[in-house]
Amino acid sequence: MNQVFTNCPFCSNKMDAGLQNYNSCTNTTCDYVQYENPTPVVAAVIEYGEKQVVLGHNRSWPPKWYGLITGFLEKFEHPDECIIREVKEETGLDATIQSFIGHYTFKRMNQVILAYHVKATGDIVLDDELDDVKIVPFDKVKTWPGGTGQALKDFLENLGYSVEELSMS
Ligand SMILES: [Zn+2]
Questions:
Q1: Which domains are present in the chain?
Q2: Is the pTM of this model over 0.70?
Q3: pLDDT tens readout for residues 116-138
Q4: CA of 56 to the centre of ligand 1 (A)
């Protein structure tokens, strides 16, 4: 989430709109500026079996929402390593990168999504984050608005599928 500091995390003085409207520390000897740079997030279109994709359901989501497997980079971690690790952690599957689909923005969360196509093998074992997955044939997948949905749509359209987009409600 986008957390805007009301007090400086370094010196505790009040934060206020400063130079170029960035949230800035009002203590002139501190000069901390909160730039609120977007956070990178990796997302996986997991191909599992013959022309099927694995979609995950996060515990905290409404029952009908299923999405790509996503995750935050660890300190100094390369996105290529991160995507393999996240797929393993969240689904138990062993993934290999097939291609980089593209980068997308997720404005509400101030994130940049790096989307990969991976192929995965093994048995699905869920961790705490997901409480369900579904395995959907490429020609039956419906996508959703927003960054990860667009990534899945681009991936499928590149393969020649026509894709229906769900409304998120
Ligand atoms: Zn400060």
A1: 1-36 (no CATH), 39-160 (3.90.79.10)
A2: yes
A3: 999 999 999 998 899 999 999 99
A4: 41
Ligand 1 centroid–CA 21 distance in Å is: 16
Q: Which residues contact 129 (CB under 8 A, 6 or more apart)?
A: 58, 59, 90
Measured in angstroms, how far is the CA atom of residue 3 from the centroid of ligand 1?
Answer: 16
CA 18–ligand 1 middle distance (angstroms): 12
User: From ligand 1's centre to the CA of 107, what distance in Å?
Assistant: 27
DSSP letters spanning 23-83: EEES-TTT--EE--PPEEEEEEEEEESSSEEEEEEETTS-TT--B-EEEEPPTT--HHHHH
Task: Output the furthest CA–CA distance in the chain (Å, rounded).
Answer: 61
**CA 27–ligand 1 middle distance (angstroms):** 6
Q: What is the DSSP letter of 152?
A: H
